[in-house]
């Protein structure tokens, strides 16, 4: 088989990874603009005002990070150093984000709760920023005491030289308070230990190396900060409490933009969303997900069931997010930081301790079986 020079040269040319296409084509530029506008449009449909503002600012920031020129320290435009494949990967993530926002606006519980967690700093970038405000700069590692090892004091080459992160008073109060909370509310494992378990000596009875001690502390610190629920600012915490307890009424879902009014678009929309004729029968061999797509339309999501956005549904979501949000306040009387965790909405005040006297009239109007009596004197 003879190989031509043109074929050999084409094989030597680098190809983009996967199905990614070059970013400098006209089609990709147009797709980027349309994708950017679609993401901002979906942000305006989110049912939470704070989520609308946060997601919009996050999307604008992410798209500006891939601009070819950015203002420098002196105000002049400076060319940014961006790798060739980074914009392609970012576009792929933006497409996934658009689908995620669409499902959240359609009433998918898992997607909408995730958006609220991102907004109120339970996960994602804002969570890390809130935790970073409580962190202190790293300090040198404390030396091992001379009585920690039967072999005597540590040699000169084991003296502390590496810096490790330290717990501030705020972080320590948060970790202790979160460890006493129910781990089910955090949808994952809670904080395991409040202190790093660093052995004093190794298997041979010699002082534990300082670099190993520093690595133990860093690993424990990173795991604790990843599980920590940072406190919300007081105004935002109070607003979320008012939303979960219905002190602030939800204004309702944001009305969607109307479709085009041209005859072609109107006819296409009516024909696509029209119900199936009576003589069209869905075969029994189709699965439930396939039948749902045929009945509801092409864009029906089969992984989670969409829900109608109602005040009751939104209050339940706000309650689930609120009970994962602590508030940190300094007490002059006790001389320490106090942590207050969010509770469920209306049902939080209906829980009483066992053995205490119940309020008068709590069970008025019902019989011994819990059935409501028909004739009850007011």
Number of strands: 6
Broad structural category: mainly alpha
What do the pLDDT scores average to? 75
Q: Cα distance, first to last residue?
A: 100 Å
**Low-confidence spans:** 6-23, 146-160, 280-291, 297-303, 347-356
Tally of separate helices: 12
Q: Identify the strand order in the major beta sheet.
A: 1-2
Strand content: 5-15%
What characteristic shape results from the CA principal axes? Answer: flat
Oligomer: single chain
Order of helices and strands: HHHEEHHHEEHHHHHHEE
Q: Which percent bin holds the helix content? A: 40-55%
Rg calc: 29 Å
Characterize the biggest β-sheet: 2 strands, antiparallel
Characterization of the model:
By secondary structure, the protein is mainly α. Helices cover 41% and strands 6% of the residues. It contains 12 helices and 6 strands. The strands form 3 sheets. The protein has a two-stranded antiparallel sheet with strand order 1-2. It has a two-stranded antiparallel ribbon with strand order 3-4. The longest helix has 20 residues, at 86-105. The chain is flat. Mean pLDDT is 75; it is low at 6-23, 146-160, 280-291, 297-303 and 347-356.
Helices and strands in order:
Layout: H1 5-12, H2 26-43, H3 49-64, E1 69-71, E2 77-79, H4 86-105, H5 109-119, H6 124-132, E3 139-140, E4 163-164, H7 169-179, H8 210-227, H9 234-244, H10 263-273, H11 288-296, H12 311-322, E5 326-331, E6 336-341
Antiparallel strand pairs: 1-2, 3-4, 5-6
Helix pairs in contact: 2-3, 2-4, 3-5, 4-5, 5-12, 9-12
């Amino acid at each position: 088989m003879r190989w031509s020079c043109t074929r050999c040269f084409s094989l030597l040319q680098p190809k983009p990874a996967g199905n990614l296409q070059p970013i400098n084509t006209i089609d990709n530029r147009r797709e980027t603009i349309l994708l950017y506008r679609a993401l901002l449009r979906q942000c305006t449909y989110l049912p939470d005002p704070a989520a609308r503002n946060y997601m919009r600012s996050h999307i604008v920031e992410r798209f500006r990070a891939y601009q070819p020129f950015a203002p420098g320290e002196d105000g002049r435009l400076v060319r940014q150093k961006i790798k060739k494949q980074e914009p392609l990967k970012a576009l792929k993530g933006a497409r996934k984000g658009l689908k995620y926002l669409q499902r959240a606006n359609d009433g998918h519980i898992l997607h909408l709760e995730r958006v609220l967690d991102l907004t109120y700093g339970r996960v994602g970038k804002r969570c890390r920023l809130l935790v970073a405000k409580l962190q202190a700069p790293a300090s040198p590692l404390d030396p091992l005491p001379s009585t920690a090892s039967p072999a005597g004091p540590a040699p000169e080459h084991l003296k502390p030289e590496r810096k490790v992160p330290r717990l501030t008073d705020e972080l320590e109060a948060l970790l202790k308070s979160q460890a006493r909370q129910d781990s089910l509310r955090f949808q994952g494992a809670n904080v395991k230990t409040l202190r790093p378990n660093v052995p004093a000596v190794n298997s041979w009875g010699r002082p534990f190396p300082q670099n190993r001690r520093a690595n133990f502390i860093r690993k424990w610190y990173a795991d604790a900060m990843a599980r920590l629920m940072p406190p919300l600012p007081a105004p935002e915490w109070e607003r979320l409490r008012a939303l979960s307890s219905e002190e602030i009424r939800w204004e309702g879902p944001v009305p969607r933009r109307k479709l085009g009014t041209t005859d072609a678009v109107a006819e296409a929309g009516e024909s696509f969303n029209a119900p199936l004729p009576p003589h069209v029968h869905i075969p029994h061999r189709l699965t439930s997900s396939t039948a749902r797509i045929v009945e509801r339309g092409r864009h029906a999501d089969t992984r989670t069931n969409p829900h109608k956005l109602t005040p009751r549904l939104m209050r339940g979501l706000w309650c689930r997010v609120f009970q994962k949000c602590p508030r940190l306040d300094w007490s002059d009387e006790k001389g320490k930081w106090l942590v207050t965790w969010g509770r469920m909405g209306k049902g939080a005040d209906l829980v009483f301790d066992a053995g205490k006297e119940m309020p008068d009239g709590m069970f008025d109007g019902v019989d011994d079986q819990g059935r409501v009596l028909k004739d009850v004197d007011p």
